[in-house]
Amino acid sequence: MAIESPISSSGGVGPRTCDEKDAKALEFIQEMTKNADSVQEKVLAEILSRNAKTEYLERYKLDGATDRNNFKSKIPVITYEDLQPEIQRIANGDRSAILSAHPISEFLTSSGTSAGERKLMPTIQEELDRRQLLYSLLMPVMNLYVPGLDKGKGLYFLFVKSETKTPGGLLARPVLTSYYKSDHFKTRPYDPYMVYTSPNEAILCPDSFQSMYAQMLCGLYHQKEVLRVGAVFASGLLRAIRFLQLHWEQLAKDISTGTLNPKVIDPSIRQCLSQLLKPNPQLATFISTECSGGQWEGIIPRIWPNTKYLDVIVTGAMAQYIPTLDYYSGGLPLACTMYASSECYFGLNLKPMCKPSEVSYTIMPNMAYFEFLPHHRSFSATDSSSPPAPPPLVDLADVEVGKEYELVITTYAGLCRYRVGDILRVTGFHNSAPQFHFVRRKNVLLSIDSDKTDEAELQNAVENASQLLEELETSVVEYTSYADTNSIPGHYVIYWELLVKDPITKHPGDYVLTQCCLAMEECLNSVYRQCRVADNSIGPLEIRIVKSGTFEELMDYAISRGASINQYKVPRCVNFTPIMELLDSRVVSSHFSPTCPHWTPNRPN
Ligand code: AMP
């Protein structure tokens, strides 16, 4: 039975008719968003009653209460650091009901870090169903705007990452690795709207080269059937394009001969691709012709001519990649479909074909209990004067349009009033559920891929690296940084102004400065180092030495634009074009990390 979509699509292409499965999903969205407040009340009561006997809720004497007033007056708002002791006990094997009455099934390793290591987020088995539910809503919404997506395939570059075990034997791995390895994903029923070119065998291969090679090869084979191209984040899709630039010759050779690159040794990939690979010299010639000229502009629609949109997140830190994606895609629409984290999947974009700058995510009230800490810039963590007491938290249905909030969640897995660290601005409502623009993640200075480097980490890295200059009686007097995404993969650039006591005999040369680059990388957090070593998604760190006096010029420039001379602080990260131009015009030498820093999947104890 065909029905009319209940989701208003003003500003979009729809509404149009959709099939029964889609209709159910859209009705579910309507039901949840129309009753946002009562769904939230129910979710909180459900979480509190099932977890009433946990050590955590008993500690705060909730005494089985499941209402908002008791909850808000007794349970503190916390950060990951506050929960470290409980998390450590669970990791060490304590199976008692510490945070959750349901057994902790595994830890999800967040890209957010604490003391340089990924945060460990406890999760429970049934959370997989909740994640699956959110995924199941994405295509029904997309189908309202883009017709015919059941007539072809999606070329999605999806990867698993390494996993470890905690001392107590629980798995610790990223949320997507957990999802791709679950039966929910591996044995998903056939759905014409969700046919991917990448076989599970390729997605599940832990070696990133072999996985990417196989996924690209399959994408090229099915090039005419591909209707959408995607990856989770923009950086991932650009890595795939870079891979094509580097390996198209071998890929074309494989296609021409119907054989598989001997570097792909994973037996399950070889087995699975042996059924696909047939010599196709015509396709190989086409790919060679498109790739050999060194002309990469618009390469996506040239190779995959039926692509209707790119499915990648380009909100938040990923917005820096929009111009590059536009270059390779010839301006294809960019769809940001969902907003999620290791702690909890939050919600979806009900107008997925809108411009990236207009993306708003509707938080689904059934996913967790959501509260919002009003965010004022004057309360920011970097403010050294003691801030006023934080204002009370606001419920999901009560946030106000135009205001900014920090997201605080209470999850089924046992996080209670946990500060996620994301700053969101309310842009409007869908029924009674608010919609949010993702403003930024708190305290993130530099980000290229999933790495998030804060000011303290950068400072520590600079201090450590500059010790190598002590012998030369040289010090770093000022520094700033820049996430350079002009090349793929992007890399960190650190501008250093040096004070060299004896420029004639003790000027630091290239060797020592490249060692400084490496020393900085060794100090950065494990997510950064994993991106460098295992994923190759970040290039070698670069130090650019600027002429002495450059940072004074930077200050003069800021003051000429209205900054107060008393309050001026050197920005520790820059991306404003005139400032970049000023800095780059003063560069005297540049140096790159000569090798990869250390990284192993195992966490130090
Ligand atoms: P992780 O815990 O490593 O899964 O990272 C989750 C974080 O990624 C979120 O808290 C956000 O800061 C960021 N993130 C996730 N989805 C989006 C999105 N759609 N737009 C912007 N940032 C996002």
From TrEMBL:
<feature type="domain" description="GH3 middle">
    <location>
        <begin position="361"/>
        <end position="441"/>
    </location>
</feature>
<dbReference type="GO" id="GO:0016881">
    <property type="term" value="F:acid-amino acid ligase activity"/>
</dbReference>
<dbReference type="InterPro" id="IPR055377">
    <property type="entry name" value="GH3_M"/>
</dbReference>
<dbReference type="Pfam" id="PF23572">
    <property type="entry name" value="GH3_C"/>
</dbReference>
<dbReference type="InterPro" id="IPR004993">
    <property type="entry name" value="GH3"/>
</dbReference>
<dbReference type="Pfam" id="PF03321">
    <property type="entry name" value="GH3"/>
</dbReference>
<protein>
    <recommendedName>
        <fullName>Indole-3-acetic acid-amido synthetase GH3.1</fullName>
    </recommendedName>
</protein>
<dbReference type="InterPro" id="IPR055378">
    <property type="entry name" value="GH3_C"/>
</dbReference>
<dbReference type="GO" id="GO:0005737">
    <property type="term" value="C:cytoplasm"/>
</dbReference>
<dbReference type="Pfam" id="PF23571">
    <property type="entry name" value="GH3_M"/>
</dbReference>
<feature type="domain" description="GH3 C-terminal">
    <location>
        <begin position="457"/>
        <end position="576"/>
    </location>
</feature>
<keyword id="KW-0436">Ligase</keyword>
<comment type="similarity">
    <text>Belongs to the IAA-amido conjugating enzyme family.</text>
</comment>
